[in-house]
Design a protein that fits this description.
Helices cover about 45% and strands about 15% of the residues. The longest helix is centred in the last third of the chain and has 21 residues. About 35% of the residues are buried. It binds pyridoxal-5'-phosphate.
Length: about 240
C-alpha cells in the first residue's frame, strides 16, 4: 500500500469516529483534499483512490498543474473538482474562474462582483463560499462578520446571477487551546444560522471548517466540509514559486 492510501485509510477511520461521536452520518461530511505544493501526479494518485474534491490555495501554482489534470476533470465517471481556498486578488478573477470549479475564499463584495462578471463571460455558474474571519490574528483572511461590508456582500450575492453561493468557510487560529478552536467553529455555524434567517434568498448549507489538526472538533461543531492536506499528503515544503 502506498503512503497515500495508508494515510487515507487512517484519515477515513478518524473521520468516521468523529462522525459517530457527534451522532452524524459520515455522508454529511465532505472531504476536501488540500493538494497545494503537491504535483499533479499526486492529485491523480489521490483521485485514483476515490478522492473527488481538491483544494488549492494559489492561482499561479494550480495553473501549472491544471493541464496535466484536464483529462481527470472531463471524464464524467471519476471526475474531480478543484476549488480555490486561498486569498484571491480581484485582478486574477478571470484566471481563477477559468481554472477552478469553485472559489471558497470570497472575502469582499468587489471580488464577488469580479467573479460574477468573469463567470458570465465563461458562461459558468460558479459555486462560491464566503470566507469569514473569526480570529483576531492579523494574518487571517476573510471578512469580518460584523462589518458593513459583510452585510453588503450578503445582501448583493443573490443578485449575482453567475455565482452560486453555497455557504461559509473559515480558518481557525493556529496553536490555541482546543476551547478556542471549538468556539471559532461554533461561531461560524452561528453566523450561518443567523444569516440564513436574515437572507432567505441565500443558500448557506456548506460549512467548510477544520483541517488536519482540528477536523474532529469541526465535525462535532457541524462542519459539512473539512479541508485536509498534511494528514493525507504529508508535511509540505515551504512554497517558493510565484504568488
Ligand atoms: C493548507 C490549507 C489547509 C490544509 O491544512 P493542513 O493542516 O495541511 O490539513 C486547509 N485550509 C486552507 C485554507 C489551507 O490553506
Amino acid at each position: 500500500m502506498s503512503d497515500l492510501s495508508e494515510n487515507l485509510e487512517r484519515l477515513e477511520a478518524a473521520i468516521a469516529q468523529a462522525c459517530r461521536g457527534a451522532g452524524r452520518p459520515r455522508a454529511e461530511v465532505e472531504l476536501m483534499a488540500v493538494s497545494k505544493t503537491y504535483p499533479a501526479a499526486t492529485v491523480a494518485e489521490a483521485a485514483a483512490l476515490g478522492l473527488a474534491l481538491f483544494g488549492e490555495n494559489r492561482v499561479q501554482e494550480f495553473a501549472g498543474k491544471a493541464a496535466e489534470l484536464d483529462p481527470l476533470r472531463q471524464c464524467a465517471a471519476n471526475s474531480i473538482c478543484v476549488h480555490l481556498i486561498g486569498h484571491l486578488q480581484s485582478n486574477k478573477a478571470m484566471r481563477a474562474v477559468e481554472l477552478f470549479d469553485g472559489i471558497d475564499s470570497v472575502d469582499s463584495l468587489r471580488l464577488a462582483e469580479r467573479l460574477n462578471e468573469a463567470a458570465g463571460k465563461c458562461a459558468k455558474r460558479l459555486p462560491v463560499l464566503v470566507e469569514v474571519k473569526l480570529s483576531f490574528e492579523e494574518s487571517k483572511a476573510g471578512l469580518d462578520p460584523d462589518s458593513v461590508e459583510a452585510a453588503q456582500l450578503l445582501e448583493r450575492l443573490p443578485d449575482l446571477a453567475h455565482l452560486d453561493p453555497r455557504g461559509l468557510m473559515t480558518i481557525a487560529p493556529f496553536g490555541v487551546p482546543e476551547a478556542e478552536t471549538r468556539a471559532c467553529f461554533r461561531s461560524l455555524r452561528a453566523w450561518r444560522d443567523r444569516w440564513a434567517a436574515a437572507y432567505p434568498r441565500l443558500s448557506l448549507d456548506v460549512l467548510s471548517m477544520g483541517m488536519s489538526g482540528d477536523f474532529a472538533l469541526a465535525i462535532e461543531e457541524g462542519a459539512t466540509r473539512i479541508r485536509v492536506g498534511t494528514a493525507l499528503f504529508g508535511a509540505r515544503s515551504p512554497y517558493t514559486g510565484p504568488a
